[in-house]
Design brief:
Among the domains are: about 30-85; about 90-140, no CATH class. The chain contains seven helices and two strands. With about 150 residues, the chain is mostly helical. About 45% of the residues lie in helices and about 10% in strands. The model has no long low-confidence stretch (mean pLDDT about 80). A hairpin with a 5-residue loop joins strand 1 (about 105-110) and strand 2 (about 115-125).
C-alpha cells in the first residue's frame, strides 16, 4: 500500500507557483507575527517565571492585554531565557559551573569512561557542619513535589 501511494504522489505535478486561494484573515492566532511577544512582554514573562509563576499563570496575565498569545509562545520564551542563562552549556554543565562559583555548596561527581557524569552528590556546607557535629542523627527529606498526604502535588 505504501509503494502504491508513493507512486501516485510522484505523478503529481505542480502547474502554478502562485497561491490558489485568498489569505485567511479569520484566524490571526495561527499567524506567528500576530502573536509575537514585544520586548515588554518578554521581560514580563522572564520576571514572572523567575518569581515562580507557572506558565499557565503567565499566559493568563498576558492574555488580558493580548488575547492571541498561545501557551507555546510562553514556553518558547521561557526556554529562550533558560538557554541564555546557560550560555550554550547543557543543564548539568551549568549546574556544575554554578556549584563551583557558589561557595555554600560542596559537591562530588563521578564520570564514566566517556566523561559523562554518572554520580553527583551535592550537600550544603551548613548541613555538612551539622552532620559532623551530630553524626548520630541523619534526616533526609526526599519528598519532592508531594504533600502531607503523600500524593503528588
Amino acid at each position: 500500500m505504501r509503494h502504491s501511494l508513493r507512486t501516485k504522489l510522484s505523478r503529481i505535478e505542480r502547474d502554478v507557483d502562485a497561491h490558489n486561494h485568498e489569505v485567511c484573515e479569520e484566524d490571526d492566532a495561527a499567524l506567528f507575527s500576530c502573536r509575537k511577544l514585544n520586548a515588554e512582554q518578554e521581560e514580563e514573562v522572564k520576571n514572572m517565571w523567575i518569581s515562580g509563576c507557572f506558565p499557565r499563570q503567565i499566559l493568563h496575565k498576558l492574555r488580558q492585554a493580548s488575547p492571541l498569545i498561545q501557551d507555546r509562545d510562553i514556553y518558547n520564551q521561557i526556554q529562550r531565557y533558560k538557554d541564555k542563562l546557560q550560555n550554550g552549556k547543557t543543564s548539568i554543565e551549568a549546574l556544575i559551573e554554578e556549584l563551583e562559583l557558589n561557595n555554600q555548596w560542596m559537591y562530588h561527581k563521578k564520570a564514566d569512561e566517556f566523561g559523562h557524569i554518572s554520580h553527583l552528590f551535592v550537600v550544603h556546607r551548613r548541613s555538612l557542619e551539622l552532620w559532623k557535629r551530630y553524626p548520630e542523627i541523619i534526616i533526609m527529606d526526599n519528598t519532592y513535589k508531594t504533600n502531607k498526604y503523600s500524593s503528588l502535588a
